[in-house]
């Protein structure tokens, strides 16, 4: 009896941390997610068609064994803005320089010196802009978000050709968290890293956005689309230009989902580590604790501007895929209906449809699904347990590792498990 009681208390503690943390962040913020509503319907429909067409092309290429034609970075498109090896900085404003010291990048020089590293920052035009220009919907992708930035962390005396690309979790602004928690420990093992600053965060945050709270539902899909293309572009650039042969895409929470999506579209086998990540953004905002951080009143007040209809959210799949995904959303809507009134249920249903493209099951399996690891928290209040089952159905050869933690405590106290998962996944490439 005592043993079961202690397990229950431990479960309650991890879950409580998630709930309390989310409540505190929500109360401290002056805005909620989607506080300006749904976004521009006309541009969304164009973008939705673009996303669907790209996914269809990539999935057909994967199914028929054809090479996937992904985005890339031309040498003349990339601008290096900082290099610790020469204390070089270009005239282009560097996030490193403006964020930490406007005169001298002393912090980064010191980090490079102590850890025996070379740190470099670069920027390039996000490849997402190309498709948005073609569809005439670039205006919905704010100017601040269009220039991608990344930090390269390279051990000075390493002979390995291994690279890990770190994508950001929700609210992970800048480079610091991923640099000190993951990139520096990996550098001690001779492994290089690239830390991408996601659109809508840090120096890429739109002027109208408050903190990490995306103003429009449309922003979440644009964030994902741009992040995936930027990740693939960076991987191809370092693979072809610098000889990196073993590459891992990784991230926590939202970053892990984007890493998995990028891996599924990358033309070569890569390692993938998704930590405490959902299979889709839908249950995170409709069923997890983040639900309390959404501006439901604003979404309800602007329902006539909702981005999608039932016909628009339909995506081509095999019959089995379509049946499973539709069954999942029907079940979710049924459960929602037990707790909310009809108007709220309508808003939740509209949001589920609008975010349908964020589901990993819409993407092809990666070239090497055996090199994928999903770490899941047993007591995660942000990511419902059903997400793990959905993820494993999409990638049945992926390894699932259950961690006795919640979402927040998983990051705080189980980073070594993530580090080990990265090493293990790389060993399978």
From TrEMBL:
SUPFAM superfamilies linked to this entry: alpha/beta-Hydrolases
InterPro entries per UniProt: AB_hydrolase_fold (IPR029058), ABHD18 (IPR019149)
Pfam family, one: ABHD18
Superkingdom of this protein's organism: Eukaryota
Gene3D superfamilies to which the protein is assigned, alphabetical: alpha/beta hydrolase
Protein name per UniProt: Uncharacterized protein
Organism: Galdieria partita
């Amino acid at each position: 009896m005592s043993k079961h009681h202690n397990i229950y208390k431990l479960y309650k503690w991890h879950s409580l941390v998630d709930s309390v943390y989310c409540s505190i962040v929500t109360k401290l913020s002056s805005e909620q997610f989607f506080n300006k509503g749904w976004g521009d319907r006309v541009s969304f429909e164009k973008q939705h068609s673009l996303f669907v067409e790209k996914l269809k092309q990539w999935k057909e290429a994967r199914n028929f064994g054809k090479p996937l034609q992904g985005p890339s970075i031309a040498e003349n498109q990339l601008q290096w803005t900082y290099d610790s090896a020469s204390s070089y900085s270009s005239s282009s404003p560097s996030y490193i320089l403006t964020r930490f010291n406007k005169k001298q990048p002393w912090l980064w020089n010191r980090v490079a010196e102590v850890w025996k590293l070379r740190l470099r920052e670069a920027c390039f035009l996000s490849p997402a802009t190309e498709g948005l220009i073609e569809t005439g919907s670039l205006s919905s992708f704010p100017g601040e978000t269009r220039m991608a930035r990344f930090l390269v962390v390279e051990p000075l005396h390493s002979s390995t050709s291994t690279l890990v690309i770190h994508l950001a979790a929700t609210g992970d602004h800048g480079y610091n968290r991923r640099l000190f928690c993951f990139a520096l420990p990996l550098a001690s093992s001779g492994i290089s890293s690239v830390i991408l600053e996601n659109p809508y965060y840090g120096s890429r945050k739109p002027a109208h956005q408050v903190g990490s709270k995306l103003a429009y539902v449309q922003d979440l899909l644009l964030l994902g689309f741009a992040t995936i293309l930027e990740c693939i572009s960076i991987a191809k650039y370092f693979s072809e230009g610098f000889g990196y042969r073993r590459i891992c895409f990784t991230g926590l929470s939202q970053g892990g989902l984007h890493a998995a999506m990028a891996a599924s579209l990358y033309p070569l086998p890569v390692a993938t580590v998704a930590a405490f990540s959902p299979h889709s953004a839908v249950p995170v905002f409709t069923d997890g604790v983040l639900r309390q951080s959404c501006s439901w009143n604003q979404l309800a007040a602007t329902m006539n501007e909702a981005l999608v209809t039932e016909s628009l959210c339909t995506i081509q799949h095999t019959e089995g895929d379509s049946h499973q995904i539709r069954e999942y959303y029907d079940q979710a809507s049924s459960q929602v209906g037990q707790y909310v009134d009809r108007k709220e249920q309508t808003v939740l249903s509209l949001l589920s449809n609008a975010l349908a493209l964020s589901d990993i099951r819409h993407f092809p399996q990666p070239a090497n699904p055996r090199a994928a690891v999903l770490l899941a928290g047993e007591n995660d209040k942000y990511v419902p347990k059903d997400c793990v089952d959905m993820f494993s159905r999409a990638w049945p050869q992926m390894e699932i590792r259950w961690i006795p933690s919640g979402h927040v405590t998983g990051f705080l106290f189980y980073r070594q498990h993530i580090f080990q998962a990265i090493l293990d996944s790389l060993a399978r490439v």
